[in-house]
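[Q] Does anyone have a clean structure-token version of this?
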Amino acid sequence: MRKTRILSYYKHWFVILAVFMNFFFSCDTNQVPESNLESSIQLLPEDQVRLSNDPDKTEIFRDAGLGLFIHWGPNSQIGSEISWPLNIASGEYIEKYYSLAETFNPIKFDAAEWARLAKLAGMEYVVFTAKHHDGFCMFDTKYSQFKITNTPYAMDIVAQVAESFRKEGLLVGFYYSPGDFRYHYETGVPQQGLMTPAFESEVPFGPEQKGFLAYEQGHVEELLTQYGDIFMLWFDGKCEPLKKHAWRIRQDVFIGRGEIPTPEQHIPGKAADHAWESCMTTSWQWSYQPHPDLRTSKEIIHNLVKIRARGGNMLLNVGPRPDGRISDPDEAILQDLGLWMMMYGEAVREVRPWTVTNESDVWLTQKKNGEYSTLYAITDFSYDEEGTSRQQFSGCRFTLKSVNATEQTEMSILGQSGTCQWHQDEKGLHITAFNQHTVQIIAYPGINPEFKQRGWSWGPDWPVAIKITNVKPVVR
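[A] Here you go.
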């Protein structure tokens, strides 16, 4: 009890000192003090740094189209959201939250299995949470003791993720939060907001006793120099000094959030001819949730199609279990996505928006090429389409008014042999297509009595992509 009172006494006066120092250094709110980080690596001179993303890397990012987002940390043991429970929390709760690191031991974690599943799902890149707002580092950093290598697990998670995903051919990216609740918790520096970085604070922290900016710049250096070829950094919060420092280390590193628009859980309504990324979850929580309210695979596929038709990327998030495994519901969704991408992935990879994003419920993407375009029309089939036979369990008919066919135009359903029926007149390009591809057996959802008697059909009941070559846009 006496020891507790003494610690409380000193912590009280330390907080008062920290408040004074924080006020002193933040009187000019537009100025961030120079970092006291003594870098051991070669940095580009500040006047030679291009403060924007590399154009070639931007094109690679836009071509990729689909990435895997992973939120994971000690909090997964209780199924809470990551970091946000610390906001407006009692001191007792904060201590309990942080004590979860003492029991975090994901003994069934297998980064290679994660990477294989991501590859199967058609992902082209991964963004993994190296440090979230709570300050817990999933990598072995010299700047903090609050890290994965100080847990019972004791191994560097980031290193395993980077190596395994790179082996599967995926681009490697790291999420990094500039806001750091742990810094405030240990130093007593007042916090303006859970995601508000304390760049102006010089109160020393961690084994290296660095001010806040130097502490985080040190993390950025470690992430960009110790884990191989890193394609992307994703800063969740205000990040100007970190972004600039990253480009001084690696001028070509692509910056996701912090440099491009990254809306969460929604899709912007208009197409945009620049890099952007819609971040969406398989459920509604970013971190692992024991009883999730899941989106359907069909909804996720529709979201991917709409995002790509509007020129963006989809970053689909999963929250692994506390033991390190991807949860069964998330694995099932990724497997479904993998089946769809196996058949129709061509329609969403290396594509850009057409002259219109959609005509009614038909969504359009186009390949990057020359005078003549390869167009993809992505739409749902109907199970009671007039003219379907026992060999054609579903079909669709639609007219595209934004497309002109040429003498070289050909048309087919991706993944299925044969061609589609089509003709062009003054009203547009008329297309009729039927499904004859045996992919899955599903319960028949339609109302046609002939098929209802069978009780099953060829599936799955997801959008299909029709490839239309050598077309031109209608000039209005």
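[Q] Thanks! Anything notable?
[A] Residues 352-473 form one domain.
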